[in-house]
């Protein structure tokens, strides 16, 4: 029994999801003639109370499209130093949009409104890049699945409005923030100019993300998606997985959260564990007391039991719970960890 905790992207489509995919009605989505893609886009737009949504092959592409929509070459965006748009999109902000990132030293991937305010370059000081966009991530990936406080998000929204900045949500795991009861989709829709959501993480789809925003923004987003090579044809087979996931896999995210919390609680009792980050959703980040147990030894001991986790660099280890991580697997991981000194 292989137990894979390296990421929530490792989950496979369930038999029910595969059945929904196989029976999807499809057309050519580049001509906007795929009824299943159109239905998914409408469903997600309505859920967040936004005018329009557009289906994409990846969350990297939705984020990159949003950055392109809101900036001109030479501009700067503001994000936390942990942000996916800065760390894990291959330098796409500079490659695709010619923009730089002003990194904020936030807490677990989250910035305060005053930190964002300090990061804005004065618009009349033409020596510095023009600040055009603020990107936030909810939940934070590198920040260990932390959920933003809605009040802080609202304050940053006001700051963006008064400074003429666009406001983008990288909501790859917004479903987890919703399942944790920290935010609801309509509030997200009111706060942000654009929202990116992923179907291929906790929701268990094989592929797919959506970008949400106003009609005019999404009309422009179709053009950018085309330029980036993201126009797909009979993608209704993939969209059907998304519709299935929204109807069946949202509620169960709470299971991932309590399992991650239980793993964190157990690890916190171990002498070889020096730090466990607060577990709010499905991501657990911790550090070892390397005099007692090296990272390599720990990873190998788990691997010997067919339990797979990864290091994140900087002495941090990560476990991520997901749809394919069952109660039986959870019991095994708990017992393996319990038996360690
Ligand atoms: C996974 C993820 C994305 C999208 O990444 P892809 O590899 O393109 O699916 C974007 N933002 C965050 C925070 C993510 O975790």
Q: What do we call the CATH topology of the largest domain?
A: Aspartate Aminotransferase, domain 2
CATH superfamily of the largest domain: Type I PLP-dependent aspartate aminotransferase-like (Major domain)
N→C terminal distance: 24 Å
- Shape descriptor reads globular
Strand content: 15-25%
Largest sheet: number of strands, sense, barrel closure: 7 strands, mixed
Q: What Rg do the Cα atoms give?
A: 20 Å
What does this structure look like?
The protein contains 14 helices and 13 strands. It has helices at residues 15-22, 35-48, 59-70, 84-87, 92-97, 113-119, 150-163, 174-179, 185-191, 215-227, 236-248, 253-268, 295-304, 327-338, and strands at 3-4, 52-56, 76-80, 100-104, 131-137, 166-171, 194-198, 209-213, 273-276, 283-288, 307-308, 310-313, 316-320. The chain is globular. It is an alpha/beta fold and 341 residues long. 48% of the residues are buried. The chain starts with a strand and ends with a helix. It folds into 2 domains: 3-8 and 252-339, Aspartate Aminotransferase, domain 1; 14-248, Type I PLP-dependent aspartate aminotransferase-like (Major domain) (Aspartate Aminotransferase, domain 2, 3-Layer(aba) Sandwich), CATH 3.40.640.10. The protein has a 7-stranded mixed β-sheet, sandwiched between helices. A 4-stranded antiparallel β-sheet has the order 9-10-13-12, covered by helices on one side. Residues 58-60, 63, 84, 137, 141, 170, 172, 198, 200-201 line the site of pyridoxal-5'-phosphate.
